[in-house]
Amino acid sequence: MVKHNVAMINEAVARLNMVESQLRTNKVTDERVLDAFLTVPRARFVPPALRGNAYVDSDIPLGNGRAVMAPMVLARMLQAASIGLHDKALVIGCGSGYTTALVSKIAASVVSVDSDTGCCTATRGAIGDLGYANVQVVEGPLATGWRAAGPYNVIVISGAVTTIPAGVSDQLAEGGRLVTVLEPDSRLPGAGVGQATLMTRAEGALSSRAMFDAAVCLLPEFGRAPGFVF
Fold first, then answer.
1. Residue 201 belongs to domain with CATH number
2. Cα separation values, 97 from 111, 123, 207, Å
3. 12 lies in some domain
4. Which domain covers residue 99, as residue numbers?
5. pLDDT score, position 229
6. Number of helical H runs and strand E runs in the chain
7. Residue 191 pLDDT class (50, 70, 90 cuts)
8. Entry pTM
9. How many whole angstroms separate alpha carbon 35 and alpha carbon 106?
10. How far, in whole angstroms, is CA 200 from its chain's centroid?
């Protein structure tokens, strides 16, 4: 029991250090976002062999083109999404479920979709263990989102993409926000680095702006086929 309590305390300290040294110092000021990172145990969503690095500010690979996104990049994306208490959110690419868990602490409800059966199983397990009851995990193609439960106030693509298909952006409600990292086509000269990007829908029209440089794992189903691109 003593060892268990010590482990819990050490992890709580690690989460606090992550919030104070990685997030607050990098322009993350939304207290609801910070509280989510302080509350959700990132180590629960990391492969056991890599849990020693759970609170390092870097992507942690999960295999199959998925990763647990770096805390600073993910926190700034969630802050930009301006997730409200009554918002319905969609997470595309649930991976091990970390992004889904964070969003569930801020939004009213979350649908999390992945085409990988193992990812869906891992997310359901972690979300169930932690008792986050406002999450629905579904299996389906990443590039089509999950239209059945839309439209959504917020869409988070948990990884990098080179294109945003119209079939995904069309699932944004009026006033909705989509965040992802747009990765340039590496086949083009001077392609540069990925850009964390915010897309919004206002009066039916979509607009987009780049927010900051970011390098994260490219989701396999968002490749270089023609699509809806900003």
1. 3.40.50.150
2. 11, 4, 28
3. no
4. 57-213
5. 42
6. 6, 9
7. low
8. 0.91
9. 9
10. 17
